[in-house]
Amino acid sequence: MHRIELAADLEEPTGEQEWEAGWFVHENGLSWPAYSFNESLRLERPASAGRTLCAFVTSEDAVRGILCDHVRSLESDLDLAVESLPGCIDALRSVATGLARYGDGVALVTDARTLVDYLSFPQDPAYGKSK
């Protein structure tokens, strides 16, 4: 996790065909794009109403944010027992790198590089299609 910001601090996107839900303008003038996923893990714009936080991740020089309802930090990677994706999910191009039991539910697991790569080319013809 690179940084967490309030979704209310994001600037509105200016282009009609952009996938970004908003932009965070850093004090040094850099702008970071933020995206919102729906329940099917498809990009949505505008973002759903409950998204109050934006979690930014970094991979190499790229910073990307995802709008969230809430964010929780884990004390260590050992708090999740990550399992491989089933074949029906693994065949699709997605942000998912694994699944894990978390509390009473199941968590989708990703990493910064996979997430940044996925969000860097949302208009790619392979977006959401088989690998």
- Proportion of residues in β-strands: 25-35%
State the separation between the terminal residues, measured CA to CA. Answer: 26 Å
Fraction of residues in helix: under 10%
Q: Total strand count, please?
A: 8
Which structural class is indicated by helix and strand composition? mainly beta
Order of helices and strands: EEEEEEHEEH
Low-confidence stretches: 125-131
Q: How many domains make up the coordinates?
A: 1
The major beta sheet can be summarized as: 5 strands, mixed
Based on CA atoms alone, the radius of gyration comes out at: 15 Å
Spatial order of strands in the largest sheet: 1-4-5-3-2
Estimate the mean pLDDT confidence: 82
CA-based shape: globular
Figure out the total of helices: 2
Could you write a compact summary of the structure shown?
This protein has 131 residues and is mostly beta strands. The chain is built from 2 helices and 8 strands.
Core attributes:
globular; single chain; disordered C terminus; mainly beta; 5-stranded mixed beta sheet; 131 residues
Task: Provide structural commentary.
The longest helix is centred in the last third of the chain and has 9 residues, at 112-120. It is built from 2 helices and 8 strands, in the order ββββββαββα. The model is unreliable at 125-131 (pLDDT under 50). A hairpin with a 5-residue loop joins strand 2 (22-25) and strand 3. It has 131 residues and is mainly β. It has one domain (3-120).
List the helices and strands and how they pair.
Layout: E1 3-6, E2 22-25, E3 31-35, E4 53-59, E5 62-68, E6 82-83, H1 87-90, E7 98-102, E8 105-109, H2 112-120
Parallel strand pairs: 3-5
Antiparallel strand pairs: 1-4, 2-3, 4-5, 6-7, 7-8
